[in-house]
TrEMBL record:
Function (record text): This protein catalyzes the committed step to the synthesis of the acidic phospholipids.
Protein's UniProt name: CDP-diacylglycerol--glycerol-3-phosphate 3-phosphatidyltransferase
Subcellular location: Membrane
Pathway in which this enzyme or protein is active: Lipid metabolism; Phospholipid metabolism; phosphatidylglycerol biosynthesis; phosphatidylglycerol from CDP-diacylglycerol: step 1/2
Record bears the keyword Manganese: no
Listed transmembrane segments: 12-31, 43-62, 83-105, 165-182
GO molecular function ontology, one term from the record: CDP-diacylglycerol-glycerol-3-phosphate 3-phosphatidyltransferase activity
Organism: Oceanobacillus longus
């Protein structure tokens, strides 16, 4: 297994740690951050999320630069992103920081694209993520990171940057999903 695939797997292994930090009521205190409170456990979870999200960029860059792109990587990398983003968004609902309807649309798009990838895989075709999908992932990661940090540093000026980024991510999620299906409709049409 090459380094980019190991980085992708490390992202998957960070998810349970991230979930525990946000699900277990650790009494580590909190910080005043302008108009909000940031629990230390949420800060640590956000750092883990940011590190996990960064491995997405590093593994892709390294795989392309050193020609280490594999079918396993093309499959596992978007799956790792979906697992990380889905876990984070569901926890943000529980924390009262994200509306459920937005999360439902985002996760539904992820299931739909994964379904298309599975149909393609059954036909021996591997569908890699396109540029729109990468933009979608980037906006989702920024939105989630800021929301996990309870809108820090924007909480000092009382500007809802995290919420704004979540709606921007929703826009790119829908647009990239439509784009992905339009570009790969032949897979569904020609499947046996």
């Amino acid at each position: 297994m090459n380094l980019p695939n190991k980085l992708t797997l490390s992202r998957i292994f960070m998810i349970p740690v991230f979930i525990v930090l946000l699900s277990v009521p650790f009494e580590w205190g909190s910080w005043d951050i302008g108009s909000a409170q940031l629990p230390v456990a949420h800060f640590v979870a956000a750092i883990i999320f940011i590190i996990a999200a960064a491995t997405d960029w590093v593994d892709g860059y390294y795989a392309r630069k050193y020609n280490l792109v594999t079918n396993l990587g093309k499959f596992m990398d978007p799956l790792a992103d979906k697992l990380l983003v889905s876990a984070a968004l569901i926890l943000l609902i529980e924390m009262g920081l994200a509306p459920a309807w937005v999360v439902i649309i985002i996760i539904s798009r992820e299931f739909a694209v994964t379904g298309l990838r599975l149909v393609a895989a059954g036909e021996g075709i591997v569908l890699a993520a396109g540029q729109m999908g990468k933009l979608k992932t980037a906006t989702q990661m920024v939105a989630i990171a800021v929301l996990l940090l309870h809108n820090f540093p924007f909480s000092f000026i009382d500007f809802p940057f995290g919420t704004m980024m979540l709606y921007i991510a929703l826009f790119f999620t829908v647009v990239s999903g439509v784009d992905y299906f339009v570009k790969n409709w032949h897979v569904m049409r020609d499947s046996k």
